[in-house]
Amino acid sequence: MSPRAMSPVLIGRSAELAELESALAGAPGAVLVGGDAGLGKTRLIREFTTAVDGERARVLVGGCLELGSDGLPFAPFTTVLRGLVRDIGIDGVAGLVPRGDTGGLARLLPEFGEPESDAASGEERARLFEVVLTLLERLAERGPVVLVIEDAHWADRSTRDLLAFLVRNLGAVPVLIVVTYRSDELHRAHPLRQLLAGLERVERVRRMEIAPLSRADVAALVTELLGDRQMPPAGLVDRIAARSEGNPLFIEALLDDDGTLACELPESLRDLLLAGVQRLPEETQEVLRDASGGGTRIEHALLAAVTRLGDAALTRVLRPAVAANVLVVDGDGYAFRHALIREAVHDDLLPGEYTRLHKRYAEALEDDPGLVPAGRLWVELSYHWNAAHDSTWALVASWRAAAEARKALAYAECLAMLSRVLELWDQVPDAEERIEANHIKVLQDAASAADKAGEYDRGIKLVTAAIREVEDAAPDDPSRLAMLLELRGRMRYQMARPGFVEDMRAAVEALPAEPPTALRARALSTLGNYVRLTTDIGEARKAAAESLAIARRLADPVTEAEALITRFCADIDYDDAAAIAEVGETVERSGNHQVRLRYYVIKSHFLEGTGRHEEAAAIAARGKELAREYGVARTQGTFMSINQAEPLVSLGRWDEAITVLNHAMEQDPAVTTRTSLLVLSGWLALARGDLATASKRLVLSREIMNLKMKWLKTQDYFSTLWLESQVALAEGRPEAALDAVRPVLDHAGLPDDARYAWPTLVVGASACAELGETAAADLRRIAERAAALQVSGPLQQAHRLTFTAEHARARGVLDLRAWDEAAAAWDALGNPYYRARALLRAAEAAVAGGDHDGAAERLHIAADLAAGLGAAPLGELVADLLRRTRTRRADDSAPLGLTPREFEVLRLVAEGRSNRDIAAALFISVKTASVHVSNILGKLEVASRGEAAATAHRLSLFTRNGRVRA
């Protein structure tokens, strides 16, 4: 008997096909298709792509390889590119990328020549990602594109990173990304789990889980497999449904030609899968065992070399496997019907067979490297020599594979290969001679790869081992020691671990001052950047000054620009426009786009800090445009989004700001960027009355700050506390608001202290105003902290004026002049929200002073501003005070012989207010309110407040909302 071929009709997947069709119609978007092995994910996708390929969409397919975990980077994207080149040619691809420059794609496919740069940096990697995205987008301008990435559970780290980047950055063009993976492979620590969880939160991403077939679908599949000649024997469907658990692959393996079970009692799934193989001729089984060592798919030429059979003999031997549907023809090679079959065959090898098989693969590739696509040779050799237990050649191949991965900007895979070199080092006595590099060099390269891959914990361990070896074996190599110390300091900084400043100091000390070197200048500049995150701003200035002096002696404009930026950021003076101008001149002279982007960051930061919001927004937008030109718009450009959104918030262009922030958050930005995005979006939500969203943003920001250090960045730390205090006030918890403010009181002297401390101190004073005398001690501390702050620039001056007025309010003084000055300062800066808040407080002071007309005038302006912003909570406060503000009557009188003030009190009595409520509403004392109520009772000739209220209602003096009837 022989196993059945697969059904020509797809059974039980109409709903899934419809969802894929819907996703394509709604593209851009992505569908994440999961399911246990054998459930038919590949068949489903093949059915879908066959239906749409051609007139309805261009289909690009790439599969991840099992070798991926061993360091084969970007495998599915290389396959996609190769297919695209085959379809439209290299010139056709060149026409789709910016400036026709395919140099970046050369890192994925050698057909494009050499990479445009030998540099292996994060920026080059970002450019590569941008080029791939642009390629897809421009291809989709001609018509919808479906990009299929299969078997993502085998994806290498670089593939996962690029995939996440593409999904998060799909523009408006019709690109549908479909990703398949085995759910049963995703153990708790599987790296794909985190990626899937993150992508699910992206808009337009769907997750589809393929379920086992129902009993009815099993019956339909069995009937289809048996064909028209026979109906399923009685009880067969039930037995197959029970044994297969609705898995189509198992159903096909269980069913035999004569309508019986092909394997009555398989001991395991492995036995079931091997049953079809074991019924084949022995020589065919032997070749299948050889094929299993090459992965799920293998080229005909490679298999011929490994088996040492000629083309004709190999074809003859494999024909039964193809006929039995164990193998399928795939281009110029073969693929196992399912990866599970290959795994079962490979796992069935005896230890000696396993070793000899992989040795034959390695020898075949050594003899003819062209048997595998370019870029795969050294990874394949590393894998096969390691499986063959040949430590020497596995080490050599892994070293070469690491170099290829570095060239492809696949840092995680580079690290994996270098880790293998380190593991094998002690097993190869002449390892240093074999690879022409010593152990320190391997450790340094591995640590550098870990740094670029974001594997900082692993990197710190590697670089620490390298430092130890340098100190023991090469004490006369200060340059290498300094580079290693700087590398460790950078990674410690990224992980917010203690010691990064000490590492940078040690790096500087390791390098002689004479003769001057660019390496020492850069080390000093980095030290200045790190030290300025502590309170030792003086050391930061000193380091930046020495770095600048060295750069000028060397006539190195790039290093000079970096030193100037460090000096500027060490202690920003928002009154000193000349300093930022000097930085700009040097940056332009350097011609270096990296420092140019840094300059646009600090210039927009400076302009916003001076209150020049329009200019700040324009500079940040120009910086984002430059990032786009340099090919890093969706990476480094994301950081610029903070500096664009902040001035938009200040200007009251909140909808624009929200668009910028949302787009930036979709990029899954680095921790160092995310805090500011969360705080800004959280504050906007709070200002518009969405307390729930503001609280969620605060929680996320606090989590990040717990991962980082309090002193890591004043902007992040103080801004998070500022948001926390405002959320607490909005929730009616002034004590909690003060708790959030206290750390700002305790941490004076940080860089940019005044810019981020002033707004928080204002909120602290507001909390004290809510709490009254019980917060007197806190109010004194807040005042002392404010008194010690420097005021730099008109923005800080506006905050200082606001604080002065708020501090007076907390002491029980409603200072009309102070609030008017604050409102005028915010008006001059073009900040409508803070102007409206100041006008509200000024109106309260005017009411308290009896100037109801002046209060009403201010409140009407504030109401218009709040409405324009969509600031509902502020608008409600303004409207409430406006209702309680008595405007002058034409005859300056009131009904029933009451004075205007008594008439206002009667309105509140009619609302059921107590004397304390009336006093608070009209800004008078409780005693004065009581006197007014007594006068009202006498004039109305009633005995109680209730009768007075009844009289007002009977005479319809007020409308239901409390307004005076005309």
How helical, in percent, are the residues? 55-70%
- Poorly predicted spans: 960-966
Task: Give the strand content.
Answer: under 5%
Radius of gyration, CA atoms, in whole angstroms: 36 Å
Strand order of the largest sheet: 2-3-4-1-5
Largest sheet: 5 strands, parallel
Number of strands: 8
SS content category: mainly alpha
What would you call the shape? Answer: globular
Distance between the termini: 99 Å
Number of helices: 46
* Nearest-integer average pLDDT: 87
Task: Give structural notes.
The chain has a 5-stranded parallel sheet, with helices on both faces. It has a 3-stranded antiparallel sheet with strand order 6-8-7. A hairpin with a 2-residue loop joins strand 7 (327-330) and strand 8. Helix 22 (478-494) runs parallel beside helix 24. 65% of the residues lie in helices and 4% in strands. With 966 residues, the chain is mostly helical. The N and C termini lie far apart (99 Å).
Offer a quick outline of the entry.
The chain is mainly α and 966 residues long.
Secondary structure layout:
Layout: H1 14-25, E1 29-35, H2 41-52, E2 58-63, H3 75-94, H4 122-140, E3 145-150, H5 157-169, E4 175-182, H6 191-200, E5 205-209, H7 215-226, H8 236-244, H9 248-254, H10 269-278, H11 282-292, E6 297-299, H12 300-307, H13 311-323, E7 327-330, E8 333-336, H14 339-347, H15 351-367, H16 377-387, H17 391-407, H18 411-424, H19 431-435, H20 439-453, H21 456-473, H22 478-494, H23 500-510, H24 518-531, H25 537-554, H26 557-570, H27 577-590, H28 593-609, H29 613-629, H30 636-650, H31 654-666, H32 671-687, H33 691-707, H34 714-730, H35 734-746, H36 753-771, H37 776-787, H38 793-810, H39 816-829, H40 832-848, H41 852-869, H42 872-883, H43 900-910, H44 915-922, H45 926-940, H46 945-954
Helix pairs in contact: 1-2, 5-6, 7-8, 8-9, 10-14, 11-13, 11-14, 12-15, 15-16, 16-17, 17-18, 18-20, 20-21, 20-22, 21-22, 22-23, 22-24, 23-24, 24-25, 24-26, 25-26, 26-27, 26-28, 27-28, 28-29, 28-30, 29-30, 30-31, 30-32, 31-32, 32-33, 32-34, 33-34, 34-35, 34-36, 35-36, 36-37, 36-38, 38-39, 39-40, ...
